[in-house]
Description:
The chain is mostly helical. The chain has helices at 30-33, 39-46, 58-75, 79-92, 102-123, 131-142, 147-166, 173-191, 202-210, 221-232, 237-246, 255-268, 270-273, 276-288, 298-311, 315-328, 340-350, 352-359, 366-372, 385-403, 405-408; strands spanning 20-21, 49-50, 382-383, 413-417, 420-424.
Amino acid sequence: MPFEPLANPEPTAPTPHKRQSKATSRWPDLLGLLRRKPETDLDSLSKRILLPSLPVTDEEMARAMHQDRGQKLARQDLWPELAQVMEYTDAARLRTPGGENATTLLAVGARADVVAAAEDALHDGVDPDPSGIDALEDMQAENPDSYPCALIVALAHIDIGWAWRTTATDRTRPAHELRFLEHFKRAEDMLAPFDGVDLDAPSLSAAQCALLAARRQPGMRVADDYERLIDLDPDSPRHMRALGEALLPARYGNYEMLDLEARRTAARTGEIWGAGAYAWVYFDALALDPCAIAHLDADFFVDGLRDIVARRRDQHVINQLSAFCGIVMAPKTGNQRLSGPAEASRRRIHDCLDWLLENHLQELHPLIWSQTLLSPGLTPSLPSRRALVAKGRQTALRVIAQRFAEDISDGSSIAFSSSGMYRLPAL
């Protein structure tokens, strides 16, 4: 099928290098996400939430370790060694504590320098120097039978293609769109000799799914491609979340397809996740499109949340689910008001924050909370890391303070530890 422009696409996972802005005005109004309560009250109450905070988590360190290793081996031109490591991590399904695929992270690091240079050039309004991607192409030509080498080059083309599309203006859009399609076509050619299922390589199947962004009418191929990927690597929630996003009406599907594939995925992965896959498929979809909740089975979704927690007690996951329930499922205001049944579903999921906090949250991962305020996918201009951490901590403490406002209105405090949540009386 020929590659042609697609409306409202979303980029692939971000690379380590992204331009940052010191401005924080892009943050959504947090108070608009919470029940109406004066800001000064929330700030005061949040001081009585005693929750250990980890500015740098095990998940971040694991991601950085894999990315740094991929970048180091690439800079030293140790491509056969890098390919061997990537084949091993793919076969072993090696992941970070939060479930991120190690092979994907190695590939992110390996192409980071080339992609960063291209992105910087495009943001500066000039064409990227082709020498970087040409060097990767030469490397792949020297290792024609190595799927990790082909994967690195293909993903570099995909990233650069997205950079062309996302930097387009009204005047340059046709030219940038052409370059987008050219890079995606080159990525498809790179991956054509390799099959993820035959090679037992989820990273390859994930890259094939990423190529759907340049197809005019992916149709049912979206469900089929993601089904193969998820069946190949059912332990990873990343693929299920990507499937849900891909099936939104603004992408390649519709709400009926989204719910159908969420149910089918849950049925196929029941031995691993219980009902958890249903929740994972809807996770990013609900964050991007609030209207999707009108088609959601709230009981099934809540069962999924409980099954995820029963199987993944890592604090990274607990923070993810808590931030989702506390922020994404917070009461809507203004033009975002939902219909009666949809509002009931939203409230049901938002109320899950109580048992997540009371029974499972032990430590705060601020970056997860700040990132939940932003839409999934790439953000053109992120605040600095320090601002992300500070905003994430402020957001989490306000959300928690709001949920337990009545309990601590007498001056008492809420404390969290490995033994659970408990209340400290006022002095």
